[in-house]
Design goal:
The complex is a heterodimer of chains A (about 280) and B (about 270). Chain A is of the alpha+beta class. Chain A has seven helices and six strands. Chain A folds into two domains: about 120 residues, no CATH class; about 150 residues, Beta-Lactamase. Chain B is of the alpha/beta class and about 270 residues long. In chain B, the strands form two sheets. Chain B has a nine-stranded mixed sheet, sandwiched between helices. In chain B, strands 10-11 form a two-stranded antiparallel ribbon. Chain B is about 25% helix and about 20% strand. Classes of the chains: A alpha+beta (about 280), B alpha/beta (about 270). At the A-B interface, helix 2, strand 4, strand 5 and helix 4 of A face strand 11 and helix 5 of B. Strand 4 of chain A pairs antiparallel with strand 11 of chain B.
């Protein structure tokens, strides 16, 4: 029997390049991690509150580990109390909409002890009217978007349900995209482990030893943090920290970046022109 | 934001857009009075597959004759157990029951509660509830919910055929989110979306499937949990209006098949305008 080839020998240049690009994307995802998803969701509930002129808007996401719907983000004067609230996935209006996928609007719900009042009071705000739409796509239900109490009207209309559904679709797309990014790291680990497994083995990927995985990771990520890219990553890190910046600071940063980027583009094109000029001589 | 971004569920049935439903009917119009006068749904059983029905709610009028819960047993198989308390865990099923009872006061109501604590198997629980309702002899079944699981497609397809062939009419709320959902998209099912005319006796036929009927579903006064009431909007509340009308038709013509009930509903529908 011939000795098992070193796993790295089986990696051709294309595969290595592919792994590098996955590693790059995974690295970006890790650096931005939950913050990106949460920021998008927060901007969606803020836009929803503004559009409906509502007292509150919130998004609850299903947590399979806890088997609960957890309110992740909220906006509006009466919205903040709901963040962190966890309910059973079939409890109350949100649970119904999540479980059945049917959106609905309710108003003038009689104030009865059994109408999810405990949960509503825990948030510090009991609504007069609400609309709830599912965050749903072909892969299933992710959660629920709720809007509470339009200031201009005592009830939500059919059109309101349709509009809220458009926002819910944006949220669904954003969550799916960020989860794909977050899954990239585990995908990369799994791929590397599979590649590292000795040829012909039928064992699961975990059969690869840590040393062979480390060797492939080293190969795949070599040059990734070279001089140029290392500096780029430092910028990415700073951008990730800007989540705490206020709007004025962000505007200022955007202007600075714009100036620097234009200067860099100009210099690059000058270099290209002078290169061509030399070539003609 | 363009109109094409909006879900298409109720579009044909709302406001000016209704004019597109105007057509000359191949069978002409049926006289509504001849079909519905004196009809009260007697002898008909309507199953409400939902969050439960509150037996003591005044809007249900004491017509809830059976109530069951579908749950997973210890082996992960859906099982049926009687719900002696006859409760509604949300209020939604009671809302549907109240609408049906309001239209067909003599019809018997059966509650099949399919909202369980474990969300993962909801498609299986829902299917088991529908299967039970068909076997239990429901004449009409109101489904204000549907499943988006591709894995459930063949199961619901078989159940829709079984219902059709055993003379049980399935009335399903259209799902408003893009993409397929079952069984609301099947041809043998009466699929319903909401219109905004505040009248339970106004309904429209849409010759362009899959959503064939529009019924009152905007700002509907409904019964709710705890003996309460609410004003509700959604396809969920349009479907029971058509289920109630179907119960009246079946009460009047006990031999009518799902195909004939659908034809009568179309021939007695309001013409837009």
């Amino acid at each position: 029997m011939s000795p098992a080839r070193r796993p790295a020998d089986r990696l051709d240049a294309d595969a290595l390049e592919l792994l590098r690009s996955i590693a790059r994307r995974g690295s970006i995802a890790r650096r931005l991690e939950d913050g990106a998803e949460r920021a998008v969701l927060r901007s969606i509930v803020e836009a929803t509150v503004a559009l409906f002129d509502a007292e509150a808007s919130s998004i609850a996401l299903f947590d399979p580990g806890r088997n609960q719907l957890v309110f992740e983000v909220a906006a509006g004067e009466q919205g903040q109390g709901v963040i962190g609230l966890a309910i059973a996935p079939d409890q109350g209006i949100a649970g119904y909409v999540f479980t059945t996928g049917q959106p609905l609007a309710l108003s003038e719900v009689e104030r009865d002890a059994r109408f999810g009042r405990g949960a509503a009071e825990a948030t510090g705000y009991v609504p007069r009217s609400l609309v709830a739409v599912p965050l749903i796509d072909d892969s299933g239900s992710l959660g629920v978007l709720e809007v509470l109490d339009k200031r201009s009207s005592a009830a939500f209309s059919l059109r309101d349900i349709e509009l809220a559904s458009v926002f819910a679709r944006q949220a669904t797309v954003a969550i799916r995209a960020s989860r794909v990014e977050r899954d990239m790291a585990s995908l990369l680990r799994g791929t590397l482990a599979a590649l590292a497994a000795p040829a012909g083995t039928t064992d699961p990927p975990s059969a690869a030893t840590p040393a062979t995985v480390a060797r492939i990771v080293e190969l795949a990520t070599r040059n990734l943090d070279g001089d140029d890219e290392g500096r780029l990553w430092a910028i990415v890190d700073r951008v990730a920290r800007l989540r705490q910046a206020d709007p004025d600071e962000l505007d200022l940063l955007a202007e600075i970046l714009e100036v620097v980027a234009r200067r860099a583009e100009r210099r690059a094109s000058q270099r290209r022109r002078s290169g061509r000029a030399r070539g003609v001589e | 934001m363009s109109d094409s971004d909006l879900p298409a569920w109720s579009e044909p049935f709302v406001g000016d857009r209704r004019s597109s439903l105007l057509r000359s009917r191949p069978l002409g119009s049926l006289d509504r009075a001849a079909v519905f006068d004196g009809a009260d749904g007697a002898g008909v059983t309507v199953a409400i597959i939902d969050s439960g029905v509150e037996r003591d709610h005044p809007a249900v009028g004491g017509k809830l004759v059976r109530s069951v819960v579908i749950e997973f047993d210890g082996d992960g198989e859906p099982t049926v157990r009687p719900d002696s308390e006859a409760i509604d865990v949300v209020g939604h099923g009671t809302a549907c029951a109240g609408i049906i009872h309001g239209l067909a006061p003599a019809a018997d109501l059966v509650s099949v509660r399919v909202l369980g604590p474990d969300n993962k198997g909801k498609g299986q629980i829902f299917a088991a509830g529908l299967e039970w309702a068909i076997a239990d002899g429901a004449t009409v079944a109101n489904l204000s919910l549907s499943s988006r699981s591709e894995a459930m497609f063949p199961i619901f397809h078989d159940l829709a055929d079984r219902a059709y062939f055993t003379n049980c009419l399935l009335v399903s709320a259209a799902n408003n989110v893009q993409g397929a959902s079952y069984p609301s998209l099947f041809a043998s099912v009466v699929s319903v979306a909401a219109h905004d005319v505040a009248d339970p006796w106004t309904w429209f036929y849409n010759p362009a499937p899959p959503v064939e009927f529009g019924a009152y579903g905007v700002d509907v006064e409904v019964a709710w949990k705890g003996g309460g009431h609410a004003v509700a909007t959604g396809n969920s509340f349009a479907a029971p209006h058509i289920a109630g009308l179907a119960a009246l038709i079946r009460g009047h013509y006990p031999e009518a098949t799902p195909f004939e009930v659908k034809t009568i509903l179309a021939a007695t529908a309001n013409q837009p305008g």
